[in-house]
């Protein structure tokens, strides 16, 4: 377990489990699994409910990563926790010829890459929750949002972003928005009634994981949607979720107009798609609980979440 850096993505993966968290997330998760590629330092995070979810979460990551990069995982490095050192994990890694490097007991520095990232991620979560005044149960959304930005900025040991080194593609940052800022999610006219508002008040909670868009928490409806049809007020943050106003909007704020006289074919390019992720869950639900997949370009409908952060 030397200090020599890998020469390509997936040559070595650092893994660590963080938790249990002091507050259960909105989706019922208590832990998060972090997987850091040694070569690029790209991080992928997965909020999970139980330690036993680690094995199946890693399998899903390994299959997707190898297909995306057309490369094989060579080795993984973990501590000696039972979530990593068990019969199922050992058999799986042995069958695929993946080397499992296990650190010595009471020496977290031997898995320093993953350990340091977890500490940094916890600081990021605390900062985002504090600055936006969002309840602690939204730590899962804050984690995914933090990691998304982390992978798209340069760090001190490289002049390239982890995203660029991992995928050999330059990431865009023009769409990044402050976590917790005010959002106006447009309501498609196909599902809007005569007296319905053209937009709904929400909070920016991150970035859509299957479509181009954002994850917006609709305050009054208490649900999370993914939509591209949204406008932001980046100067307004820190809305207190406990404060309600006697208004159909939930808050005394003016909504922007969303005009209906555009050509539908043009608007389709901007995607009137708004996908309902979950009425009770924000970030990744348990692996064993997957909603049904639906597809409709003109309505708010249930759809599956991509588990964990934006891996690819």
UniProtKB/TrEMBL annotation:
Residues 5-170 form the Integrase catalytic domain. One of its GO terms (molecular function) is nucleic acid binding. GO terms for biological process: DNA integration; DNA recombination. Pfam families: rve, SH3_retrovirus. SUPFAM superfamilies: Ribonuclease H-like. Keywords: DNA integration, DNA recombination, DNA-directed DNA polymerase, Endonuclease, Hydrolase, Magnesium, Metal-binding, Nuclease, Nucleotidyltransferase, RNA-directed DNA polymerase, Transferase. PROSITE patterns: INTEGRASE (PS50994). Coiled coil: none annotated. PANTHER family: TRANSPOSASE, PUTATIVE-RELATED (PTHR42648), TRANSPOSON TY4-P GAG-POL POLYPROTEIN (PTHR42648:SF11). This is Retrovirus-related Pol polyprotein from transposon TNT 1-94. The lineage of its organism: Eukaryota, Metazoa, Ecdysozoa, Arthropoda, Chelicerata.
